[in-house]
Write a structure and sequence with these properties.
Length: 497
Amino acid sequence: MISVDEARAHLAALVSTMPVETVHLVDAAGRVLAEPVTAQRDQPPFAAASMDGYAIKAGEANLHARFKVIGESAAGHGFCGRVEPGQAVRIFTGAPMPDGTDFVVIQEAVDRADPLICITIDPKGTSNVRPAGGDFTVGAQIAAPRRLRPRDMALLAAMNIARVPVRRKPVVALIPTGDELVMPGTNPGPDQITASNIFGLKAMLDDLGATTRILPIARDSLRSLSTAFDLAAGADLIVTIGGASVGDHDLVATAAEGRGMHWSFYKVRMRPGKPLMAGRLGDAVLVGLPGNPVSAMVCGYVFLKPMIRLMLGLIHIEPPRCQARLSAPLRQNGPREHYMRAWLDADGLTAFDCQDSALLTVLADANALLIRPPDDPPRAAGTLVDYLPLWHDTLTQNRAMDISRIFLNILHTRINIKSEGVSNLWSIKPVRNEFHPEYVLPVLLWVGRSGAPWQGRPGASGGGWLLPAPAGTCSMLAAAGSPLDGEVVMSLMACTR
């Protein structure tokens, strides 16, 4: 048997990065950008009004000044001509600034009596003009590789990029095996069960960016397995589920060898998932997963997920390891690395009592995999341990109220917050997480008075939610009415993919 890290290294050596293909922008969402792309235009391409009002020259923007309105500039229909001193052009948000103007007096700050306007509120301050190229300029790049998110799609469109270079999706063929299996929706015989692993694995692999094909169930015969391998032709990765052990009916290895399989390894020193095998079968990589439902899903998360990310050309392929403190003691671990289904909340990390690899209900209830090294000694409550998060990377507002069910880690620290002149609004620097940005979603920070207990809700004990701002800074709108200047307690909650 080899270690988990050795197995990962072998699997990484088996796969190769998918070639680049070009797709229409509308089809690029969720794909992995293969090469940097460059903006074809400035954004905005002209100086534009950021408010409805009147375009004038900044030097004339004085209280009680009067102007003659000589035209109009609207989005898509700019004013043709030059604005001279004492003149103004009616302008609307997003419209190009007329030649000779560099200031917009908002419409609420003037009185109009056609064709004249008079400034009635001192307009000093912002010009209400968005400069040309204020967002980006020609030549600005979107770096690769990255998986294209909805906000990336909007940026690509704004850059006038109609065709996008992406990595081809790896094609994965899933082969369920076993005489005992039937598809969901059918009537199982007295000795049969429904095939479940393939549907969990397909959901996982599709979500990672693969194209996953579920093949018919291969029965426990060399002929049936050979037919299944024929049907998998053209796949980049073939994944068999079941039949990878050493029983009389475990024939996957024999069938693969008969087709020229070149083995990389067999058996991994882990629990669950020991009977894992891999190698190359023609132009495809073959990975044989154990048949127990939890074993197959854990192996998918630990091994298949990094393989797909590597095939898509992503840099950070390993699931992020995190740390939390045990909320209950653990007995000594056995000789294999153990991935224990666990629950993470504000009290810490708790392993479920039953770790039977056939129990999908326990996996469905878990939000973390607690990692025990081989021969790990007994661990007391409060010990810091490693774990892998299991949830998806979606954080919605209603689930934020139940944040303890999805957060990755809680870090308690002390910081100083100083008011910046706006009631109940602060900036905190530096506030940053330790996870790679490839994995990190928006971070929620709860801030409360020093020594006040965390109550798990906005505004508890005079605190509030802290939401991230760009460039590693954060701003907070406190839910409480009183300032929080001075020392506070900060809890950081991050959710990763």
